[in-house]
């Protein structure tokens, strides 16, 4: 099978599309024929060799966590899923023609493989950081870097829970944020005062890692009410860095519920082939995403 592999840490150029042995489903796992794989910032962070405790890496390594596809092997002890089922979930080395998933759910009706591949890690992360930052209904949450996959999920889940959301993003994405129910503003000069003009901020999330932790603490008045998924230096200022996943099966179940009730929709901004994995990482790392980026197999 074809699989994207890197043999050394580095830039996107270390990614290679090579022939590799097929993986097989072990106990509690399923194998899928991959139709699409989600592109997440954690992918290029792992490729660069950043120290991420939840994702230890032995070289050479595959890349990718999220995928959607068709079940073609069911591991020992697995119930409730059969060969031929369409599923989406989280596993390892998903930029490949076959991948093993350790957590999965059946795809809701009407969802394409490309759309489904964009949800697993994104929804888990959104649910986790909303919980960790401790924001409650009728309070206001500020989301820095709100137009990407996690931001899109946070805005919709928070609004569903009765939380007011202020979102920062580039000028071209202001209408997109407004459509998701957020009070939008740009992140260019003067953004702190513009946020203050939109209301009191009770909690804040940094999703882009753009060096705004001090400002988020200033706006909330409490470093304990600031959580980042992108700035490893956040704890030095008293804020929290969140990098260890919670329950993916629970997140997938909530994603299915939200999707089935039309309460969650994250558009796929761009698709790539396996051979274009490096380009996908370059674009992901550049930011300014509206929704998700997906590798189509």
From TrEMBL:
Superkingdom of the source species: Bacteria
SUPFAM superfamilies: GroES-like, NAD(P)-binding Rossmann-fold domains
Domain Enoyl reductase (ER): start-end pairs: 10-295
InterPro entries: ADH-like_N, ER, GroES-like_sf, NAD(P)-bd_dom_sf, Zinc-ADH_QOR/CCCR
Cross-referenced Pfam families: ADH_N (PF08240), ADH_zinc_N_2 (PF13602)
Keywords noted in UniProt: NADP
Protein name: NADP-dependent oxidoreductase
Organism classification: Bacteria, Bacillati, Actinomycetota, Actinomycetes, Pseudonocardiales
